[in-house]
TrEMBL record:
Protein name: Protein IMPACT-A isoform X1
Record-linked InterPro entries: Impact (IPR023582), Impact_N (IPR001498), Impact_N_sf (IPR036956), Ribosomal_Su5_D2-typ_SF (IPR020568), RWD_dom (IPR006575), UBQ-conjugating_enzyme/RWD (IPR016135)
Primary location: cytoplasm
Subcellular localization, as worded in the UniProt entry: Cytoplasm
One of the GO biological process terms: regulation of translational initiation
Family recorded in the similarity comment: Belongs to the IMPACT family.
Record field: transmembrane: none
Subunit annotation: Interacts with GCN1; prevents the interaction of GCN1 with EIF2AK4/GCN2 and inhibits EIF2AK4/GCN2 kinase activity. Interaction with RPL39; this interaction occurs in a GCN1-independent manner. Associates with ribosomes; this interaction occurs in a GCN1-independent manner. Associates with actin; this interaction occurs in a GCN1-independent manner.
Location of the RWD domain: 86-188
Keyword set includes Disulfide bond: no
Annotated spans, Disordered: 1-26
Gene Ontology cellular component terms for the protein in this record: cytoplasm
Amino acid sequence: MSCPVSNRIAAQPPGKEVSSGVGVRAGGREGERGELKLLLFQWSVGVFVARSLWTCFLHFITLTGSCCSERSMADTEEENLQSQIDEVEALTSIYGDEWCVIDEAERIFCITVSDSSNKPTWTLCLQVILPAEYPASSPPLYQLNAPWLRGEDRLTLANNLEEIYLQNLGENILYQWVEKIREFLLGKSQTSDPAGPCLKSTSEETDVDDDCEIPAEELNESFKNSMLFGLNDSSGVEEIPPIIHGETITDRRSTFQAHLAPVVSPYQVKLILNKLYENKKIATATHNIYAYRIYIKEQNSFIQDCEDDGETAAGKRMLHLMQILDARDVMVVVSRWYGGILLGPDRFKHINNCARNILMEHKYCSAGILIFVFQEESSKQTAKSKKVGKECKKKADH
């Protein structure tokens, strides 16, 4: 007797059962693939959304931080201004008429400091500009003016003021500066001639041509842009630039020599002067006249200054020469050793010739300026030759 189930299976066409099993398995695989694709799609969408949210969050944080930073900067500037106002009011009440306001809008002030209020023998004028960043993050710009202040005295006093700033970062320091200057003057009065400062002789008559002077407005702008002994760069990380010594010019026993160094910051000017004064011969020169110009590309302006060192108007003339030559990022010091014979106006010619020669030799002049100078020299030489020729002809005729 045959089994019904077996008969039904046997009655089916060959291969039908196999075909049905393959279809079921294929359908299951397609379903799994569809679910996997769906999961991958959902995951991709989730990642995209998460990234978008994270980016939006970062933008939000950045904008919030920027707004906070701007508000913080504005608050800092307001605090600085208020601190400056309070400091100026205090100084006015302490020093009275000695404290002068030169330009309230530009925050320019000055004070004359002396060693004694009764019979002063040593006096000095301190002129300051208070930048918007003072006192929070920047020192005052300053200039020290006195006919006797030069060389080592100037460097010593500048170092003292710099030390005060570094010891009181973020604080008002003008009162401490004034009192340190007064202390310095008292020290000078106790260790020097009781009659007062012995001004360094100019060794020449004070003949100054007005047409060689730099306009007062230009000098004021120079002071606003300059900070001779800059404090921002006084960390000591800057190296002393290489110093080049020029050829000497000798006339009637007076000797002139130029020294040149590249500079990119006012602090380097101080380093160069310190280095030069280490040389005993240069330190004992009758005059060490200098001028420098530093180009600030971002502001399209110059930091520049000069020093006569007792040779009336010599530093201004040399700075004027550097402006004509369009010399940039360079400092020139001209040393003069006086020989005992007055040279008159020729001394200015020798000082400027020393400066011009070393600037041209080391290509601190623009090409157009060099061509002009050479043409001018050639024309002068030609005129001189013609004059000599005429004199020789006259002598021959006689």
